[in-house]
Write a structure and sequence with these properties.
By secondary structure, this protein is mainly α. The protein is about 60% helix and about 0% strand. It has 15 helices and no strands. The protein has helices spanning about 1-10, 15-20, 25-35, 40-50, 55-70, 75-80, 90-100, 100-105, 110-125, 140-155, 160-170, 180, 190-200, 200-210, 215-225.
Length: about 250
């Protein structure tokens, strides 16, 4: 009730107070975000909160940034909105639309952060049925997938890129969520592209080194990886069949 009263008559002097309460985002995130949206400098205040909340709180705050549709927020939306939680599915479509993802990622050069975040956005869309925009309903899906592949090849491998490519290759195939991707034939060229990267010597070497360093993403991938599909782990790393991820 106190936050509701503050939100109704808030001034810029109240921003630190609202932000502090908003850190308890699972309970107070929606009202805190709405209050900050209405204030001068609201975008920067919501961005501050967005960097510090997770779970449902992140959903509320990212949705607020999308409603604001402020160019100031677009760099953050393009690089940091998806933090790996399955609840990201609720806002993935809004982020892609508000940030103009398809226009940015299809450009000739894109930085590492945008490329890596685009992979996470695409992956979330492969299991977002019933929550948000699915890959099958995202109007720019093919263009963004093609651009993501092109930038991955240009940038080269890392442990996180290997994981995203492997999960996308799985999620775009027969083991994927049919309600989110639709007919798998539509995605076969892009699935083949990700599989081709995973076959390359340099990508395999990076994945093996990451496994030796016990990188959490690679370790989790190996626990459910198929020797037939992932050459990097075909030497008996205890891997099994690739299944679509519950979360990226």
């Amino acid at each position: 009730m106190g936050l509701a009263l503050v939100a109704a008559v808030a001034t810029v002097d109240d921003i630190p107070l609202i932000q502090t309460i908003g850190l308890l985002s699972n309970h107070f995130g929606p009202l805190a975000a709405r209050a900050l949206e209405q204030l001068p400098g609201g975008t920067e205040a919501v961005l501050w909160l967005a960097d510090r909340v997770t779970g449902w709180g992140r959903v509320y705050v990212v949705e607020a940034l999308c409603r604001l549709d402020d160019p100031v927020a677009r760099p953050w939306l393009l690089r940091s909105a998806c933090d790996g939680d399955f609840l990201n599915a609720y806002f993935v479509g809004s982020v892609a639309q508000t940030a103009g993802l398809h226009e940015v990622i299809t450009g000739p050069t894109v930085d590492d952060e945008i490329t890596d975040h685009t992979g996470r956005l695409l992956l979330v869309m492969t299991f977002s049925q019933g929550m948000g925009t699915t890959l099958s309903r995202y109007p720019h899906a093919e263009a963004v997938l093609a651009a993501h592949l092109r930038h991955l090849e240009r940038l080269g491998p890392s442990a996180s890129r290997y994981c995203i490519a492997a999960w996308l290759a799985s999620s775009l195939g027969e083991n994927g969520d049919a309600g989110s991707i639709g007919p798998v034939q539509r995605w076969q060229p892009y699935r083949n592209g990700y599989l081709a990267l995973l076959e390359r010597d340099d990508w395999c070497a990076v994945a093996r080194d990451a496994l030796g360093a016990k990188d959490p993403g690679i370790v989790r991938l190996v626990e459910t990886a198929s020797d037939r599909q992932l050459r990097a782990f075909a030497d008996g790393c205890g891997s099994r069949e690739v299944r679509s991820p519950v979360r990226p």
